[in-house]
Design goal:
Length: about 375
């Protein structure tokens, strides 16, 4: 969907342009010890997680971590090898049963929106309302389109809409049956970057109004922080950490989690007398055992560049202007290697070479190796 139409400006979603989203009966969805195999490949490895009623839970992780597989299992498109799915204390998939997708009360919004090109917008939204008559289904579809500010496009066809407008229609279709849980697989990945922020805000507002439980798959940590009440970080089919954006950013469980939420410099060291030595100076490590091997992570944004006599010595070897910021690569002496820094544009003089480095203690994280 990332075509030239995606850059068209969307009409604002406000009370004057759309109807307030109807309330759904938000459900709790529990994944209990989920395992899944594709042939000999073990994709999900004992994953346990739950989405609470009315919350937006983001599944975050790199490609191949199992995010979309977990979503497909929840939707009933695939069946787990073992483990159970429980919706509001009722088992919907397990060793003895697996309800078909249409019986689960779970909605799914696909990554590419999956709108039928030969159907009008209103008929696309009506498509999932199979238990209603044509007239009633069309009425519910129009209500859903009003909620997302797209009623005026009811008789249009998908190819006439921008990417952001198609996303709204797909959301209307997913919410029209009032599902207990809404699943969204990378719903903003096909949008022009200039539209993403606006569409995310609009989508989140609609989910809040509908009080829907939503599980959103993304590989973008910033997007997860913008959207999620909680974030579940996955890696290689396992759950690494769950928590709020603040939890995962400030208190990452391991080096992988730290690197997923911010760009980091990593230095190998050992702890002696409560300190780990790094090219940027000693780092306090009082809770780690004497002699333990550690990885010291320092966020790029936590490295400050100052005058040579006011910090650890370094030499600028490369710098790139990024608008509000500048990315600077520095060499440190005595085999310390390279250090990456992100500083405010204009803070470092254009001709500077020999500089000093200082570090914000809040941007230092220490993990046992």
């Amino acid at each position: 969907m990332a075509d030239s139409k995606s850059s068209l400006k969307l009409a604002p979603l406000d009370g004057a342009s759309r109807r307030t989203a109807g309330v759904t009966f938000a459900a709790r969805l529990v994944f209990d010890d989920i395992h899944h195999h594709y042939g000999k490949r073990h994709i999900l490895k004992g994953l346990s997680l739950q989405a609470e009623p009315g919350e937006v839970l983001c599944l975050l992780g790199p490609s191949g971590s199992g995010k979309t597989t977990l979503l497909r299992i929840a939707a009933g498109i695939e069946t787990q090898t073992s483990g159970r799915l429980i919706l509001n204390e009722r088992e919907i998939s397990g060793p003895d049963l697996s309800l078909p997708p249409e019986k689960r009360g779970i909605g799914l919004m696909f990554q590419d929106f999956a709108l039928f090109p030969h159907l009008t917008i209103v008929d696309n939204v009506r498509f999932g309302l199979t238990q209603l008559s044509r007239r009633d289904g069309r009425g519910e579809a129009m209500v859903a389109l009003e909620r997302v500010g797209m009623a005026h496009h009811a008789m249009s066809y998908p190819h006439l809409l921008s990417g952001g407008e198609q996303q709204r229609v797909a959301l209307a279709r997913a919410l029209a049956p009032r599902p207990g849980v809404l699943l969204m697989d990378e719903p903003f990945s096909g949008l022009d970057s200039r539209l993403k922020d606006a569409v995310r805000i609009e989508t989140l507002a609609i989910l809040r109004e509908a009080r829907a439980t939503a599980i959103v798959v993304t590989h973008d940590a910033e997007e997860a922080m913008r959207l999620g009440d909680r974030i579940a970080l996955l890696r290689n089919g396992r759950l690494v950490q769950t928590g709020t954006a603040e939890d995962l950013y400030h208190r990452p469980a391991d080096l992988f989690a730290a690197g997923f939420f911010s760009e980091i410099n990593v230095f190998a060291s050992e702890v002696h007398n409560g300190l780990a030595m790094t090219p940027l100076g000693p780092v306090k490590s009082p809770e780690i055992a004497e002699g333990a091997a550690v990885s010291v992570a320092v966020r790029h944004s936590g490295v400050g560049i100052v005058e040579p006599d006011k910090g650890s010595p370094a030499r600028i070897v490369a710098r790139r202007f990024l608008g509000m910021e500048e990315h600077v690569t520095l060499a440190v002496p005595d085999g310390g290697g390279r250090v990456e820094a992100r500083v405010r544009a204009g803070d470092v003089p254009a001709g500077a070479r020999e500089v000093g480095l200082v570090v914000n203690e809040k941007d230092i994280l220490v993990f046992e190796s």
